[in-house]
Amino acid sequence: MSTTTDILVLGGAGVDTIVHVPELPLPYADSYMIEPGIVTRAGQSGDFVALGVTALGLRAHHMDLLGDDPEGDLVRAFHRDRGIPFTEVPSARGTKRAVNLVGPDGRRLSLYDDTRSQESDRLPDATVRALAAAGRHAHVVITYPCALALPALGEAGVTISTDLHNWDGANPYHEPFALAADLVFLSTTALADPERTMRDITERGRARIVVATAGAEGAYLLAEGQLTHVPAVTPPGPVVDTNGAGDAFASGFLLGWLAGEEVRRCALYGVVAGAYACTVPSTRADAIGRDDLLARAAELLPASSADTRTARTAESARGGA
User: Fold this and answer.
1) Domain of residue 52, residue span
2) What is the pLDDT of residue 239?
3) DSSP letter (8 states) at residue 319
């Protein structure tokens, strides 16, 4: 079947205000002088995945609720300037927004505005089905009301990925996403026993692969019942901002996954993309390109297989798969 989109991204469109602070946690004080300044820019999880896969040569389409407000205008411009198609659903409560405190080591603390959604919000099923039918894959962000769109995606027959972020393995909000996806990303940050949570996802849901990112420790990959560790790679520069690193990891992994690469190679693409993202201030909204990612991965792969594997991924990224 002919497709016009490689990856449909649902949810996660919004605006962040980035505040660099002298340390995290931030001790109480009456005031702080902040450098390099406070910047408000478009770019939440869905925006960054759409940006990441587009930079890697895949065709993305993003869909979410937006308000008729200045924040919505920033999100519209973000996609328009980068040539990323965006299907907008009107939001009465306004565009999602957050404040991200970023420490000197690049760690961040995100404060999300929970007033920017309401229970009646919906992504229209008919539109979701139509966009999914034109694509190869759907990546679903855990923002409301994306869980309600999962049945429509299932009916469309596309594969699904999601990122549970810092799920603790128990919060019921995340479960519909965890159990409906073929490919699940999450962070080890809040997990007491990452392996147990990863295996629980595969045993209870439809996931074939679960990937738990662990920052500077790399990632853990569960596939075909086997848990393996994927080491981190050295970032190409100083770590300045970890905002968007998980989204970059997912983008790199999806590049390999849609090309039919074996899962450890997909994870390598993920750690390379994530490492690059940590060296770029998120205010720049930049992402590693396909050629740079494949070149860096080739340096890290066994010489006997690097050339043929990266060549195949490059061809698939251009629409050859």
Assistant:
1) 5-320
2) 86
3) I
